[in-house]
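Weekly structure sync, notes
Attendees: PL (lead), two postdocs, one rotation student
Agenda item 3: pending single-chain targets
PL asked that the sequence for the first pending target be pasted directly into the notes so everyone works from the same version. It is reproduced below exactly as submitted, 331 residues in total.
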Amino acid sequence: MVLSNKASVIIVTYNHRKYVGACLDSVLANDPLEVIVVDNGSTDGTSEFVEENFPEVQVIRSPRNLGYGGGNNLGVRHARGEYVVILNPDTKVEEGWLEELVKPLAKSQRLITTPKILLYDGSAINTIGNIVHFTGLTFTRGYLEPPERYDKQEYLSGISGACFAMRKGEYLELGGFDENFFAYNEDGEFSWRAHARGFKILYVPTSIVYHDYQLKVPPQKIYHLEKGRYIILRKYLTARQRLALMPSLTMTEILTWGYAVLNGASGVKFKLRGIVDGLKVKTSGVGINGEILKELEFRIPEDQLSYTQFDRSIKKIANKIYEWNYRVIAR
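Predicted structure, written out during the meeting:
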């Protein structure tokens, strides 16, 4: 039974004209039920290019930039498929990508699948799902490792927002992306919520995506990441849990402040803005128990965004604190 023709592929664009042609060619070759492009107010002619060259693709022009999460929520509301697949526009996919990604969904309820995502040239891994840490941090998983690594299905702590699939009804049941996240870490928050509602996240290595990606965190990105992290902590941890996790949360503050300082005055400014805005956002607490915490990770990658041996040494210390504190609260 072919399942790809039951899937709606949602692609949110913002000035992605140079990528979207290759993306749509590869997606349409996988025979989805439909492809929906949500354009967030591009000024480079993205919408016109898609309408002229891909008449079979539905284009939804948003009157304003809704952000990545908001754009995907809009697209899903228009989707007709039993399954919805979220995909970045700066990607291209292999033949069989879609069928492999949705196949496990036909066998299990409350499941989200995420593929193997390689760098655009296929030379190394971009991410195989995400590492979702219990202090609100999110990292790529397997970054720059050889493409042939991680060749078995496994359950993960987090999806990659660059591509994942699930039932449309379950996406709506979860409430879609939290639109307080304009960009970055929205997939981290979505993963927390999925675990809190009893969903599993499955990595599917036979579904291959190529993504134009470089690991960079400039000051503006620090703002979005930190704002999102504070929203997550307020939303999912009770005051008592935050107190119990204070050694780990303090360690994460040391790491994030250290990185902000390395980015100079702009880094410090955006870190502060992220904290303030993350604390101001109105959000209702979900709360999680120790069992849900066990679905999250207690180690962070020691090589990502590390530029000296001192950086790695600090992260080694942090991981020891994280592991001890995690085991105390999640036992």
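Discussion points:
- The chain has two domains: 4-211, 219-330.
- The two ends are 43 Å apart (CA to CA).
Action: rotation student to compare against the earlier draft before next sync.
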